[in-house]
Amino acid sequence: MSAIQVKFVDKKIAYTGEQLRSHWAYRSFDILGDSAVAFIGPCDVRPEFMKDVEDLKAASRIYSEEMLHFIVEHFGCGLDEAVLRQRLLIAIMAENLNRRDLKGGVVTRSGSDLYDGRLKLTVSIASVSPVSALIHAGINISSRNTPVPTRGLADYHIEPSGFAGEVLAAYSAECDGLLRARCKVRGCE
Amino acid sequence: MSAIQVKFVDKKIAYTGEQLRSHWAYRSFDILGDSAVAFIGPCDVRPEFMKDVEDLKAASRIYSEEMLHFIVEHFGCGLDEAVLRQRLLIAIMAENLNRRDLKGGVVTRSGSDLYDGRLKLTVSIASVSPVSALIHAGINISSRNTPVPTRGLADYHIEPSGFAGEVLAAYSAECDGLLRARCKVRGCE
Amino acid sequence: MSAIQVKFVDKKIAYTGEQLRSHWAYRSFDILGDSAVAFIGPCDVRPEFMKDVEDLKAASRIYSEEMLHFIVEHFGCGLDEAVLRQRLLIAIMAENLNRRDLKGGVVTRSGSDLYDGRLKLTVSIASVSPVSALIHAGINISSRNTPVPTRGLADYHIEPSGFAGEVLAAYSAECDGLLRARCKVRGCE
Amino acid sequence: MSAIQVKFVDKKIAYTGEQLRSHWAYRSFDILGDSAVAFIGPCDVRPEFMKDVEDLKAASRIYSEEMLHFIVEHFGCGLDEAVLRQRLLIAIMAENLNRRDLKGGVVTRSGSDLYDGRLKLTVSIASVSPVSALIHAGINISSRNTPVPTRGLADYHIEPSGFAGEVLAAYSAECDGLLRARCKVRGCE
Amino acid sequence: MSAIQVKFVDKKIAYTGEQLRSHWAYRSFDILGDSAVAFIGPCDVRPEFMKDVEDLKAASRIYSEEMLHFIVEHFGCGLDEAVLRQRLLIAIMAENLNRRDLKGGVVTRSGSDLYDGRLKLTVSIASVSPVSALIHAGINISSRNTPVPTRGLADYHIEPSGFAGEVLAAYSAECDGLLRARCKVRGCE
Amino acid sequence: MSAIQVKFVDKKIAYTGEQLRSHWAYRSFDILGDSAVAFIGPCDVRPEFMKDVEDLKAASRIYSEEMLHFIVEHFGCGLDEAVLRQRLLIAIMAENLNRRDLKGGVVTRSGSDLYDGRLKLTVSIASVSPVSALIHAGINISSRNTPVPTRGLADYHIEPSGFAGEVLAAYSAECDGLLRARCKVRGCE
Predict the structure, then answer these.
(1) Whose CA is closest to D175, among C83, C141, E103?
(2) Chain C residue closest to D88 (CA)?
(3) What ipTM goes with this model?
């Protein structure tokens, strides 16, 4: 029994924010139920699909020439739980990166962001649709031409699809473990 | 505004599991509302206070000569959210440890457990009371005489109260960030 | 992926009401997570384990010489959902029975009770533990010496373990279908 | 006290899917609160009102020359509970049909669908609005010109308004019973 | 349709806190479902039934020679909603009192407490059982021998049973209005 | 620690209903999180922003030449809780008004409306966005040219900004008190 289905999509998809909607994995890849899907492609979020009101207010550009994207959907999950799951996914990425030889780099997590020193590696948002919770997490492959100083997987010579597979597997194991944990505990007084 | 109140208690308290109940922080330290309290003391959980049914079935002993303990309480929080918060707290501990000089050790997180290789550093449980969610996380200070092979903060020459203060501050910042994140996001389609 | 684990226990267990508690399937049969377990045995519910306050007020006796029992546990499920699931389980039993040759009998469902004319076939209750929802449904095998006029599976020459297997399979399929249904639907205006 | 208000509308209404929205019963018939409304009319669901993403993906046509429709709305009800209520409504229809002389037909329920052998009798969906849960269940009156082989009430010589009244009464009684059940039970350990 | 059943009990009952449990109205007066029951009697809450941990910590005595008590139970209602309902009940009492001739007194509400200047009129608590939310509100009839300076209905020459009837009717109307309000509103963007 | 941030906006804003959307306070005044914002301005709600379906059905005009408006947003709050909070806010307004010299007027609350005899003082609605609950409460300053007979703060010679400040402070204190109440209570049996 696996609590979540995961998939790495082996073709380029440009992330525009439009993908962050309910049933995107079901419509695109016939994955019904909780899912985590990863793919590679540029990132340029159109304002109508920006979900972070802070970004909207600041008219921030969410842009990267090439990113590894994760789209996660959990049904029957509210926003409080969604932001927690988002943080765990980001923590899992950091844990994976720091087990690798980063050529002197060290990745630190600050909430839902990953940094190497002052260089930003990721963008991420968690939101809710009428029927599910949705998470987007993108980690730069390329660090060129980004709106803020960044680093990317290419700077560390990390192959994106292999990294994606490991992160998907770890998030899937985490979800299984979370389900086991909530099913084996008694209540307190 | 801080989403959670934190406190390091500067006196020894033996953890027996009895502390994992609603309002322990309010009754003991007059902290009303969400809280994370750390203290140092031995750990020997009495069966009637064991909340992990897996441990009860296996008649496991949850024992340590000296641990740094964290007791976290979140009101209006269900079990699904509690196990997620527990994992984040454990991830924060790992992140803190791996920023330090561990004399060659590397800490890895597996669900709610921390390991250095095959040596276990922590015990942890998340549960719910009728009015709140409760988390216990204990990290060994001493690694002597434990039921399974372990390592502890002393093995890394880490001073427990300083570590406790950093973890409490990081968890508090995480809680503030989680609240901000859920308050600044729009819904999806 | 199966939403629920099912098991027919091939030894007699006397149902006293004590079985209607969280983690009974996990403690007894090492089934972790949502479960439906069936077994055969007498039924005599002790007052301290009676959950129906109507029965407690009336000092009703819940008794049968031999019943087929189903104990269902759903984690992360509240009481409103539990009573709905209970009704579906009972409806599934009725659907199964009426597909068989009942020697002139016809089973009708009234809420969570099954009747053949005025003869009662079942007892059932749905409740909640601090961490899960729990359902007991018992259908008479024997109809002798019951507190009210009843019929039982033996009166219809129905072999209990076969019937149990079919009901467990149908309830499992129902749970899978319910999960698919909630994961494939969009919201309305 | 009745948990739900029911009404059979004695004029033809063409079901297009547009009716599956919050407050349709309140706007159309001044029924405020939980409701189940039945009416007769053709069925031709326009894609923008299709809520089942499986149907949208398959570009299915949801069509019938004449159906008996039920629109149910429950306020303060989530999607998990809505799909359970939908199944119960469908089970109630099957129970009613099988108590009648179906001229050799036997109705079986498979999830939220009713069949007579391989002939489909119904279409149904459960969804949520921002303030309520909504269920549509339609049972064929006519079985002519349907996209898949079907049977309808006319094939069984069942008068639709009488059937509607019985199903509405049974669903109303079920809702009352569910409310009583959840209000008379104690918690478990 | 009435959202809640109300009853004034015309015999003395000593309030000890034991009455603040699920199904008290059902067990005592056969009222199944949401209820508000009022009665007259002394008040002396035994520590094991004190639900306010602040009172337990302070070892407060909750005592009155004669009070008018209200016990309210709402099923399917959490603690956040329960404390809101408690405040509304107290506000309703204040509104009723201030419409009367209080011989120069003016009642002010501070959270869940009513005061006339510095004199306290009420005690109140809201809590949750495993299946419902429970509220106790007591207003002094007599103001003699109370642990803190108080006033009571007798000091204002208010007849308790008439006052009880008016408060019960107003709370019942409030509950009906709340239900209507939640059922007639659309969602926002 | 304050559970809610409050602000009186010292410039005129015409209330059209468009303000009743998620993050209005964050977008307009950079207030992130739960908030109550008051301002003065005319009121003329456009039909597309009317949330009360009763008003929509009746094609009611929600109009006032000059009102004091309150916009309240609570994150992680459902509709049942929102209508309760709305009532408390209205009760707070009534309590404040009746402590003043109303030149013979007496304010009574009927659900979410305030009246002085048959003259209406307020309009109010509570709704939910995908991420929060929203409340609008407007109290007339001017009572001229209103669709129904009304009174306004000017008729009582009450200065609106002072009244706004007191109501905001009282609602903020109420929210703090509600949070403390839910955090200091134990569960019942």
Answers:
(1) C83
(2) C88
(3) 0.96
